[in-house]
Amino acid sequence: MSYKVLLADDERLDLEGMRTFIPWQELGMEVVDAVTNGFNARSVLTSEKIDILVTDVRMPHMSGLELAELALNEKKDLKVIFVSGYQDFHYAKQALSLNACGYVLKPMDDQELIDSLIKARDLLDMERKRQAEYSQMMPVVKNEYMLQLFEGNYTESTIDVLHREYQFNHFAWPGRVCVLEIDDLFKMDGQTEESRGKSNTWLDSLLAWSREAGIAHGCKVDKNRVALLLETGTGQAVIERLVDQVKSAFGTTVTAGIGGNCSEVYGIERSYRQALEAVELKMFRGKGKLIEFEDVPKSEMDDIKRFDVRMDALFKALSSYELVRIHDELDALFQTAKNAKSKFTVRNYAFYLLLKLDDYLHTVNEDLFELLNMDMRSLDIILQLETIDDIHLWLRQRLYQISELLNSKRQKKNWKLISEIISFIRDRIQDNITLRDVAEQFSFSPNYLGLLFKEETGKNFSEYLIMLRMERACELLKNTNLKIYEIADQVGYRYLPYFSRQFKETYGKTPLEYRRK
Got the DSSP string for 173-201? Predict the structure, then answer.
């Protein structure tokens, strides 16, 4: 794509010389027009998209400086090159104040003008690249800002950016939030890059279709959900058309949950939470439904809340390797399913639980399929199992298996970490080292690291530090001729009586008695 150039000079010979002898095509430029005065130049600038203006400084009626100033007021990214027969610093100074790309003196040296044109082109190239990068980032940035809005984590600057960059100030209140969740995610989000790409395509396509339908504000929530902010007048029919588009394009159903109305920004979070609760009800109502929060009986909403509480307890038991609690929590979850006396509901339970388990495992950098060494097709067994008890047993065995694997990996991972920490302490045993110092070094909170240390070593941090210092003191007492106060200093004690008392409490002897034995 070439850049468009306008030439303005009241001396026709200079004008024709520039037009004829400069290799415009090689420079990636096109001369749109060559005019002899500022008024004609203004007319061209108004009617054409000009990238580079090459103008004489002195022209009758309107100088090149006046022309450039007017043009730059209207088009900030215009690049200007001045030519002049007057070696007058005053003009050069004014040209510099307008950020000119060049100031070429007459009689012109073609190469000097070419160099100025190349400079202008390079600046335009850089700005185009920056603009392209910004255009690519805009949807990502908006997604983040909208997610902050939905989750209630926004600030005043968030709203300012949404107003300024994304016309959020034109939103027609009242609004309400709609959350769309893809059904049968496991079938689209298995272990292959192709299937993951398909899931991402679904999210991007749905957002694009929603914009075409007049829904300007929305975002990806996670790998299987999109949240949309609906304006006044956006009815159920619009959402149903979007759901049909997804089904037609990707062969899968979508469940939609719609929250209550909100009249201001601060009410968006509440509507979003309601929409999420409505979506969760697909476990009871089935897939591919549009569920409005305000139409859901309180008893049904209480059921799903109890189910979520039970699931949280189940996942905590899973993480802490409490097999009895896993058994009990899964039993409690399946009791509701058994009361429903519906294989369809039980299968929904099972798939829903696996979906939530996969989400939970990703928060601890694990993957359901990798842990179980299985792929998507393996989940079809849930459809083949004949009774509720069979499904229950299959799930319990998988949960035991995952808990065992997590515990094994955690022990290996934690002990490796503790070993690194102990090595770190040994290297700095002479320093006044604290748990906070170690926590900062290994990027943990002191409380968490203290608990982890006690869990893996059986001692709290201060006890273990004393043990390491005493062990090192024993080595120095046995193998060196250092004085007692020097040994105390080398193991981190600046006060000799305290070192001696600590040593005697540990070994029943003073350092001197230990050395003499």
Answer: SSBEEEEEEESSHHHHSSSSHHHHHHHHH
Residue 135's pLDDT is what?
57
Q: For residues 280-286, give the mean pLDDT.
A: 78
Give the CA distances from residue 421 to residues 425, 429, 434, 439, 479, in Å, rounded to whole numbers and listed in that order.
6, 12, 12, 9, 26
What is the rounded CA–CA span in Å between residue 65 and residue 69? 6
3 state DSSP class of 312: helix
DSSP state of 341: T
CA distances from 336 to 304, 307, 329, 381, 439 (A): 11, 9, 12, 22, 44
pLDDT for the residue 341 = 53
pTM over 0.85: no
User: Residue 143 is which amino acid?
Assistant: N
CB of 75 closer than 8 Å to CB of 127 = no
- Calculate mean pLDDT across residues 489-505: 87
Handedness of CA 488, 489, 493, 497 (dihedral sign): positive
Rounded CA-CA distance 369/191 in Å is 8
The candidate with the shortest Cα–Cα distance to 79, out of 56, 66, 98, is 98
Query: Could you give the C-alpha distances from 470 to 112, 172, 457, 484, in angstroms and in order?
Result: 79, 72, 17, 13
- Pairing between β-strand 254-258 and β-strand 290-292 as defined by DSSP bridges: parallel
5 - beta bridge partners? 31, 52
8 A C-beta contact, residue 19 and residue 3: no
Q: Burial of 422 by CB count in 10 Å (0-12 exposed, 13-18 middle, 19+ buried)?
A: middle
Q: Smallest Cα–Cα separation from 52: which of 131, 129, 107, 118?
A: 118
Of the candidates 235, 309, 264, 268, the one whose C-alpha atom is nearest the C-alpha of residue 256 is 235
Instruction: Specify the residue for token string 């989400």.
Output: 359
pLDDT surpassing 80 at residue 376: no
Peptide bond preceding 511 in cis form (omega within 30 of 0)? no
Cis check: omega of the bond before 174, within 30 degrees of 0: yes
Q: Report d(CA 222, CA 202) in Å as an integer.
A: 12
Q: pLDDT digit string (tens) for 213-222?
A: 999 999 998 8
What does each C-alpha distance from 86 to 56, 90, 108, 341 come to in angstroms?
10, 10, 12, 96
Q: What's the full length of the chain, in residues?
A: 517
Q: What is the 3-state secondary structure (H, E, C) of 15-53?
A: HHHHHHHCCCCCCCEEEEEEECCHHHHHHHHHHCCCCEE
Residue 105 burial by Cβ neighbours in a 10 Å radius (0-12, 13-18, 19+): middle
Q: Which helix (H) or strand (E) holds 79?
A: strand 79-84
Q: Which of 72-76, 265-269, 301-305, 328-332 shows the lowest mean pLDDT across its residues?
A: 301-305
In order of 252, 314, 396, the CA distances from 356 in angstroms are: 19, 11, 15
Three-state DSSP at 330 gives helix
Q: Judge contact between 180 and 194, C-beta under 8 A.
A: no
Element (H, E) at 389: helix 388-427
